[in-house]
Amino acid sequence: MVDFDLLLVGFGNVARQFARLLLDRSVRLRGDFGISWRVAGIATRRHGTAFNAHGIDLVHALALADRGMPLGSLSQPDGGRTLAADATGLDLIRHATGESRARRLQQLVVIETTLLDIERGQPAVDHVMAALRGGAHVVSANKGPIAFAYRELSAVASVARRRFLFEGAVMDGIPVFNLVRHTLPVVDILGFRGVVNATTNYILTAMESGRRFEQALGEMQAAGIAEADPSYDVDGWDAAAKTAALMNVLMRASVTPQTIARTGIGAVTLEHVQDAMRRGKRIRLVATAERVGGVPVGRVAPIEVEAGDIMAGLTGLQNVLVLNTDMLGEIGIHQLDGGLNQTAYALLSDLVEIARSVNQSSV
Predict the structure, then answer these.
(1) Which of 95, 243, 253, 303 has the most crowded Cβ, counting Cβ within 10 A?
(2) What topology is assigned to 184-336 in CATH?
């Protein structure tokens, strides 16, 4: 049995859906994978911070957050100390990792789901670094840490003998990183192409049916799928961050979103979309990466794709990533349905992966 103490750093749509999955699949996690868990802390910018070494009532926490109420009432003094209700995520991590060392606990896991910062990846990078250095495993759905600091964070994780996993950072719950890590040994990823931003794909395919740009974007915002700052989607920043993350992990690059050539879909009109359709083409926001003179180069831009291309058939929230490999040619990963539940599932699957690692190391 693996006993996890979880810290939820960020408690927005994805983290709350992850919390619901934890509650829903608790019996199966214990029975099939030998996982027991409790949430020891939650830090969120909107609802404050709570820490309880004996476990937070997650049902109560969800009810409070769903009503927009603060979480501070869930805290319990720990050895005479109480974490302030306005403490940051970094404060929570430092407090909990300190307690973990004092009590010789081994399986503290930080679940990092804060908002993407496109300038430096902060504070998520600091959250991950502090957690790993404090002896915690990390699971993240945030693109920032791997888009800005993957090599550094991986090195720290290796020294600390802790796992840093991020399957939900690029294609929701579709196993991109795990696919390469576990099933493509000694295969080199030469490059890739694909549609990796669900919001822009939804907008473009909505425009193909005659709907206006603003209407489709509003629907994505209402569903909680668009980035908190929708310009990150529209201007291609989210896709650029995902491109950088994929390049850093799969192609051993050292790039950031700022080094990705980027053009968003803001200038794409209904007339552009429907004119392309009349000519048998489709406009998609496509992320590409390849080696030019041995140097990895990434690009994000709306392009016209031929009707027979796999990307032309994408509708709504569907995504696709085509990996160009040295030994297996092209491998396509096609997501037919994406959203909050899929991203939350990626967090859960990474937690199971950590439990497997713990069990293997104890054999």
Answers:
(1) 243
(2) Dihydrodipicolinate Reductase; domain 2 (3.30.360)
Query: Each residue of 169-227: pLDDT tens digit?
Result: 998 888 999 999 999 999 999 999 999 998 999 999 999 999 999 999 999 888 878 77
Contacts with 12 (C-beta within 8 Å, 6 or more apart), sequence order: 44, 46, 113, 115
Domain spans of the chain? Answer: 2-173+342-361, 184-336
**Quick one: which of 150, 147, 335 has its CA closest to 238?**
147
pLDDT in tens, 309-333: 999 999 888 899 999 999 999 999 9
- Alpha-carbon distance of 265 to 301, in angstroms, equals 8
